[in-house]
Target: Enoyl-CoA hydratase
Amino acid sequence: RAYSHITSEARGPVGLITLNRPKALNALSPELVAELSHAAVAFDADEAIGALVLTGAGEKAFAAGADIKTMSSKGYMDMYKSQLFKEMDQIAQLRKPIIAAVNGFALGGGCELAMCCDFILAAGEITAPHPTHPSLTPHSPLTHPSLTPHSPQYHFSPLTSHPVSPAPNTAKFGQPEIKLGTIPGLGGTQRFARALGKSRAMELVLTGDLMSAEEALQRGLVSRVVPAASLLDDAIATATKIAGYSQPIVAIAKTCVNAAFESSLAEGLKLERHLFYSTFATEDQSIGMKAFLEKATPEFKHQ
Ligand code: HXC
Model:
């Protein structure tokens, strides 16, 4: 299927989807969301693909939210009947991992879309070395000997509520719907609250203020902050690493971590234990452990 609001391409074992309406800051129109879920579901079903990466085209935005032009004239029954953006649920229900590589604005539905993904890498200025690909970590502003927290490149006070980023491509997160006379509708209130805790989630939802990549990192919304120039390479390298493991085992691991947000600790522990035992029904568990004992690299068969 040909897409006009996104691009979709395989990068080795990684399915890369790029939101591609840069002039509208990749705003989520109904057509874009339909294409996005179609492409994501197609990669999920493709045995050659082990993990997905989702990013936004252009320097300025991952996605600046639902398309306000499309929504502005709608009434309640229009929204109710069309179930606007219902396809978005499919992103959160993919079996394969999907990594959000967030460059620039992730606002409203854009922030919610990033939070539907399994983890978020954010473009920003405080960098930590890539755990397995040091070459993906260009010089880090914080470790450069000439740079102190007071030097001009160090712009973010992680806890300020009004971070102003100097670079358009650094990630900024927020749920500014309150400014439009509406509220988040794709999980923002729920996933923000779980990720940030009640107080900061409430403040951001009620004020519409934005949060820097560095604050998002500090609060655990994102897994790592990466220089904008290497964000996509890092996301693809990370996805490639995951894609090198057994697909069914990766899916089980994802299911278990997600269960931590859906169940009591006792239920989550029980699920984990049963699914841990179940991995011993796969060929890939034998392959992985045998390879370890033989000091060889496992070649997983995804079964
Ligand atoms: C439609 C959008 C858009 C959006 C930006 N654009 N965001 N179009 N829907 N959400 C368009 C602008 O109209 C403009 O088009 C172009 O993108 C560039 O944007 P500017 O505003 O000129 O850029 P800038 O001054 O740099 O400001 C960037 C910005 C601002 C701070 C991100 O664009 C902004 O506040 N956008 C809206 C963010 C927002 O409120 N999102 C939540 C939406 S509600 P033209 O044609 O003028 O050049 C939502 C609900 C989800 O997401 C729940 C659904 C169920």
